Each structure stands twice: as structure tokens, then as C-alpha cells.
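Q&A FORM
Asked by: J.P.
Topic: structure of DELE protein

PROVIDED:
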Amino acid sequence: LEEAAFQLQQIFRIDISIALNILGIESMRAGHCRVAFTCFKLAADRGYSKAQFNLGLCYEHGRGTEKDLEKAGFYYCQAASSHHPMAQYRYARYLLQHGPGSPWDRHHKAVALLEQAAEAGITEAQAYLGVFYMRGLRPQEKRGLKYLLQAANSGDAQSRFHVGVCYEQGLGVQQDLAEALRHYRQSAAAGNRQARDRLRA
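REPLIED BY: S.T.
REPLY: Here is the structure written out as C-alpha cells.
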């Protein structure tokens, strides 16, 4: 009986958190940012990762509350620890730009989070890692190209442009101008100005 009561409490707690998070999303869409913030906060404090992520967004962008990057980082960290892929990406970005601790520890943790988010299909993380590996102190061009291709295949026109650059310059792949042109054309067709400029050049 105690076990059954505990299970019911857990279900009730999760259902309330889901409902509060949905109410927060609907309130945000309606422009009621303060109400949305309150709903997200209530659900986040119950441990609901989607609400923790949404609360992080509120703090990062100052929606319904004062802008506070430290609190945004805290809630992104909470959601990331529950394997929320977009929170992993946001928390990684926070660590690289504002995080506490030594630069080496922040860097190492951020890259691990970005890789998890990229593997979960987060296009922003794939694109970020692609450029990151291409431009690092010790570039890992093949690894960078892998992530750029993933992001490009998810529809990211900027990453498609970078893939074209890789083929044009032979970065992480055999130089192939025809393949570079193909990627530039696809990127330009998706509205990328750099790709249009490159095609004209």
C-alpha cells in the first residue's frame, strides 16, 4: 500500500509539472511572460527538465524576469543533467562563455555536452562543433567536417556553406571543386549570402 501511494504521488507530481510547463508555454505564446515564468519556475523546482530548460531561456533572455545568465546557466545545468539535448547545448555554450572553474575543465565539459547534444540530433550543436573542430588550436578537420555535414543535412545553410569551403580547400576531405560548387549552390538556394558571394567569385 505504501508503495502504491508513493507511485501515485510520483505520477501526480509529474502530471502537475507537465501541466504547469504547458501552461507556461501557452502563456508565453499569448505574451504573458510573467505568468509563464511563474509556471516554469513551479515545474522546474519539481525537477521537470523541460521546465528547467524553459526557465533557463527566461533568465537568459529576460522574459518574465530580470535577465540573469548565472541563473540561466544553473537551470540549463539542471536540465542537461537529465539529458535534455537542447539544454546540453545551451549549458555548453554558457560554460564556454561565462562558466565557473578553470578554462580547461569548462572546455572539456562543454565539448562533452556538445557531442551528446549533436548525437541527439541538435543541429545547433552539430554546427557549433563543426566550426569548433575546424578552428581549434589543433584543427581536427575530418571530425569538423563530419559535424558540418550532419548540420547541413539537417537543413543548416551556413553549415552547408562551410562544407563547400572544406571541399574547395581540401579541409578534411580530398579537394573537389565540383562538389564545392554543389554545396555552395544548395546553401545559396537556402538563402545563404556567403554562398551566393562565393558562387559569383
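FOLLOW-UP: The chain has a mean pLDDT of 91.
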